[in-house]
């Protein structure tokens, strides 16, 4: 079955409908990747992934970044890029694990998955905890607001200036961190479990806006809700695949094949399908995005 770090209610709300196939137990029994008696990984992660033929990836089921298809297969801009790169490395399959954003880095470092492939945007605090690949996606941020944008929200500064405003955010998400870094009090933040809940919070008047990447909000747009233009007082955001810091050989091999993929039309086709620009991803570096405050 599709693995999950979310509650059943949250998973159903996120739209996950079926399961991706896991390797048969017999197939795993033939290979040992942990130290007897300790359960700790043995050998390099890169060697293990090549031997077992698949990688476990953490996703959030937030289109267009990540998505679970009706048949249970994993797709979206980030998993599709990761799958293409891994195939070039001799790792033919991915296994998705749906998990909240705030659990992705702890879960990676606890060996619950091998790679984060969820549009987990780079910033200083995250880059100090994990190793990212070079950028795969560059994005903009917007607010989902009631039609007509009655509070005229277009900047984070406007949110900070009015203590009465309430903004829905995904805990642990880039937007949650961006507001806190800007000094917006926690009392103004409305924590929600998934994208649809953010839209519902705005519709019900529990939040004045929902802060999320522009393309994610466009995928959630519904009657009575409008999406603002890109918020211009947020630093440029982007993501790459996330790895454990100890997996330096895996990161190096991944970056080599990602660079090769970026030089082909396939990279633009993968991102274009989901509304992203290949040229934008080529135009920034990991070091630039890892310098984002937060």
From TrEMBL:
SUPFAM superfamilies: Periplasmic binding protein-like II. It holds the Pfam family SBP_bac_3. GO terms for molecular function: ectoine binding. Keywords: Signal. SMART domains: PBPb. This is Amino acid ABC transporter substrate-binding protein, PAAT family. It comes from Saccharopolyspora flava. InterPro entries: Ectoine_EhuB, Solute-binding_3/MltF_N, TAT_signal. Residues 54-278 form the Solute-binding protein family 3/N-terminal domain. One of its GO terms (biological process) is ectoine transmembrane transport. Residues 1-29 form the signal peptide. PANTHER family: ARGININE-BINDING EXTRACELLULAR PROTEIN ARTP, MEMBRANE-BOUND LYTIC MUREIN TRANSGLYCOSYLASE F.
